[in-house]
Amino acid sequence: MHVQVPSSATNFGFKNLCETFMVEVYKAENRPLNVPLIAPFTIASSRLEKVENVGIRIELKNGCVGWGEAPILPFVTAEDQPTAMAKAKEACEMLKGCSFITLGAVLGQILVSSSGYRHGSTVGRKLLERDATAPGTRRIKVRAGVEMALIDAAAKSIGVPLWRLFGGASNTITTDITIPIVSPAEAAALASKYRGQGFGTLKLKVGKNLKADIEVLQAIRAAHPDCSFILDANEGYRPEEAIEVLEKLHGTELTPVLFEQPVHRDDWEGLGRVSRFAKSKYGVSVAADESSRNLADVKKIVQGELADVVNIKLAKVGVLGALEIIDLARASGLDLMIGGMVETRLAMGFAGHLAAGLGCFKFIDLDTPLLLSEDPVLEGYEGLGAVYKFANAAGHGSYLHWENVACFDEKGQSLWFKHPRWPPACHSQFAPSPSLSCIVTVKIGTWLSHLQCGVVPRFPVSSSDSIVPDFGPEQSLTLLAYDV
Fold it and tell me: I need a labelling partner for 456 at 20 to 30 A (CA). Which of 1, 60, 146, 405 fits?
């Protein structure tokens, strides 16, 4: 099956790449990608303690390697990490059989594979229009990660950065930054911090308690008087509550520039009601996020004039699905927002390249890497406060230290290990070897210099050494040092 690339890419390089680039996959694999958050992330519908995504690596026979990320949020994606790992493995196994076929044809196979149908079945675009609870679209998140890696590898093969491949409108974007549901004092502290870092637009998670939401907004305004507000209720309000929020905020001069997903995803009448009120009364746009799960949802929004903006997330619809929805939205006069789940700079970087290259997004919400306490991604875009700058490196320009992504216990769960004698940032990971001992890997190769300079004087290390430090009679760990 060959997929037709949406016309948003017709005048750009991506359509041509899909039609002419011949894919020969040498290796495709996936591993857990777990990263701690700076603080728990609370929204109206859930609370997230840590990121447990899936990293994907695809190596072509020409030696080029592409990287992708599938975000996993069980309360949103309907799949947990073990399920996503299994589905990603299936996709990787399928890719290993791809030899000298066009990129478009491979993306078509991924589309069919992610739907749960047999290869060669007649599904095509109809898969993108199925309800989001159907088995096919529940695996879109894994499909998006595989698409990212494959497109990245193809772009590297021709030496073109993704932002140019998607149109070259710009090599920079400016993102907002999110404040989760916290106390007024905590929100004010975050707003002050983000003001100092140059963020002009703050996205506030609301929807759990109307009175508390207003108090938080007032505290933020006091700390950051010049900021613009985006409210994101994550389905948390009833229509009348959403309207009441707008009325009270307007009375205190706290009118937002955007009100995202004010009501339940399936409350179409309520969404349209709030949208019409917000726009006609206060000039506030309403965005559909959870209500825009696929192409069919966006068609419904267009036909019923139910929202002013649709939020594009690659994890919801995949790369090709995103381009198709972008086409529809632009033709219909809808404004566009681009966002993500809770992802590292790998997935956010890909989405950022897409946004910069197309240049058609009015609202950009690609801030989640800033909420992580560690950055497992090497190179990639340059973050200057709210501004992301994309270089001319081929593809999306970032990668993972693959050996350090693998870290499992005997049940397949990811683990972190820190030894008190190591430098604070030298967080190591470990996994069982065939003999059931543990392999500890230094996360960043530059920390080898700290080990060699005597921070751990009893254990001299070079890039080729394998040693067994004495951690006690009941624990024997093998330390492997890697150069980056």
Answer: 405
Give 222-262 as a DSSP string.
HH-TT-EEEEE-TT-S-HHHHHHHHHHHHHTT---SEEE--
pLDDT at 481 over 80: no
Using the predicted structure, report yes or no on whether residue 456 has a pLDDT greater than 90: no
Residue 224 phi/psi, 5-degree rounding, is: -135, 80
CA dist., res. 307 & res. 29, Å (int)? 40
Residue 278 near residue 286, CB atoms below 8 Å: yes
Q: Is 75 exposed, middle or buried (0-12, 13-18, 19+ CB in 10 A)?
A: exposed
Q: How far apart are CA 121 and CA 98, in angstroms?
A: 18
Beta-carbon contacts of 335 under 8 Å, excluding residues fewer than 6 positions away, are 285, 308, 309, 310, 329, 362, 363
Mean pLDDT of 124-151: 62
Residue 404 amino acid letter: N
pLDDT at 311 over 90: yes
- 364 and 381 Cβ atoms separated by less than 8 Å: no
* CA separation for the pair 338, 355 (Å, rounded): 7
Residue 228 one-letter amino acid: S
**DSSP class per residue in 112-170:** HHHHTPPTT-S-GGGGGGS-TTSHHHHTHHHHHHHHHHHHHHHHHHHT-BHHHHTT-S-
Is the confidence at residue 297, as pLDDT, over 50?
yes
Amino acid at 204: L
Beta-strand relationship, 466-467 and 477-480: antiparallel
The residues pairing with 231 across neighbouring beta strands, listed in sequence order, are: 204, 259
Residue position matching structure tokens 């900021």:
227
DSSP state of 397: -
Same fold across 7-164 and 165-400: no
Torsion of CA 319, 323, 324, 329, to 10 degrees: 130
Superfamily of domain 165-400: Enolase-like C-terminal domain (3.20.20.120)
Can you give the pTM of this predicted structure?
0.80
Measured CA to CA, the distance from residue 483 to residue 242 in angstroms comes to 53
CA proximity to 150, closest of 322, 12, 8, 26: 26
Residue 356 to residue 171: CA distance in whole angstroms: 6
Which two structure tokens, joined as six digits, stand for 244?
Answer: 């009441």
* Domain ranges within the chain, ordered by starting residue: 7-164, 165-400, 403-480
Pick the CATH number of 7-164 from 3.20.20.60, 3.30.390.10, 3.30.1330.60, 3.90.1310.10: 3.30.390.10
Q: What is the pLDDT confidence band of residue 439, given thresholds at 50, 70 and 90? A: very low
Mean pLDDT across the chain? 80
